[in-house]
């Protein structure tokens, strides 16, 4: 039996299962809200073209309007000024979009403090238990934040001082961007940076360092609580938008059943 035949067999028997990490996309999907004078992305909208009626008696279809960075989506390097000469979505090699999942769990800390930061020390603890980060890995930050994603106010969690959501520190952002094993970073929140990251130096360090170093971001993930800390394989499937700074994506993981 070939390797691929073995994968199909393992899926059929349930020894290998698929965990969907993609949030459903609808007009209620929360999107990032920038303060004035900055422009904001479009929210998801669907317009019926026909639905088994006079406009199309035997078929149904719709037009959709949305921003590149809506819902569960991928950030490409050209999304940020430090990566502006890098890759657009359609230029990202497919092999960079499939790799081992490294899950770091800060859900208890985020429940106690929504501004909690991921630090290099968390990786040291992960490696002490699971070994070195595997090649071409995707680091996934589990915070429990996806529980909020049907309520835009709780999901964005902003007050007069700005948003309060977990994410990496400046030191951690640089550490991940420079680590040769890391291909990307994914979160349950609306953006790959912490809510307070606009006040960091540099501002929005995950965008600054990660995208500037040919790494990629994923946001608004769900079901990270169904993944082991190590051993799963992540599959990221964005639309290959020519010149795209990002793209909504279907993201899932292959997990061995216990």
Automatic annotation (TrEMBL):
Gene Ontology MF annotations: arylformamidase activity
What InterPro entries does the record point to? KFase/CYL (IPR007325), KFase_sf (IPR037175)
Going by the entry's taxonomy, the superkingdom of the source organism is recorded as Bacteria
What's an example GO BP annotation here? L-tryptophan catabolic process to kynurenine
Assigned keywords, A-Z? Plasmid
What's the name of the protein? Cyclase family protein
User: Source organism lineage?
Assistant: Bacteria, Thermotogati, Deinococcota, Deinococci, Deinococcales
